[in-house]
Amino acid sequence: MSKSKNMYSLLADNYSDYANIKNKYIQRVDSLIINNCQKSPLNYLDIGTGDGKRAINIAKLVKAKYTVLSDSCEEMLANVEKNIADEVILYDITEKYFFKRKFDLITALWNVFGHIDNEESRLTSLYNIYNILEDGGRFYFDVNNRYNIDNYGLGNVLINIFRDIIPFFNDSGDFNFEINVNGKSVPSFVHIHSPFEIFTLIKKTKFQVNKVYVIDYENGTLKNSYFKGQLLIELIK
Predict the structure, then answer these.
(1) Where in the sequence is the domain holding 136, given as residue range(s)?
(2) Which residue from 84, 79, 92 is spatially nearest to 68, judged by alpha carbons?
(3) How many domains does the chain have?
(4) Is the pTM of this model over 0.90?
């Protein structure tokens, strides 16, 4: 089991409390997705859904006809309310899955891609999402941004930039950390992208970048510089 999956399996029962820490940021991301849905999607898939409450709220407000919730963590899915969605599935986005339908709207929110172990797997995930998206369909995902001075501080960002331009550091963006879960320190892993890194990854696919939003991680306000927030990206097939 990866460090990230292990963390979320232990965090499952306290996930709602954990999410509330970044409530203003999460609300801004959700409102941007909802407001950009010009017509109700026939089929909506959320990847890395956690307890499903956030995705179900989005599904209701965009008036999705059919909603599928997915997560790679069994413990998380155990907390999804029964009959809350049309389907709830155990699904690892890095692997192929044969869905019964294609989707008009797909989301992978709160740095889901930062908890995928390596670049090859992240690229595979984008390919998999592209293949299950309807033509003209939209995929929204957000990533933590290692050039975000407002959140990580100028000193740390300068170190990150230095590591990015020196070929010796081939693990730039990989961070190991610990989180307190019920008084127990749990080791975990996250990859924090740079804007250039994530856009380079997207260019390897057939996706078109439609919009990029920079959002303050503390108060959810929109920013006008990649150095001032996390990134919400809207892709179109």
Answers:
(1) 3-236
(2) 84
(3) 1
(4) yes
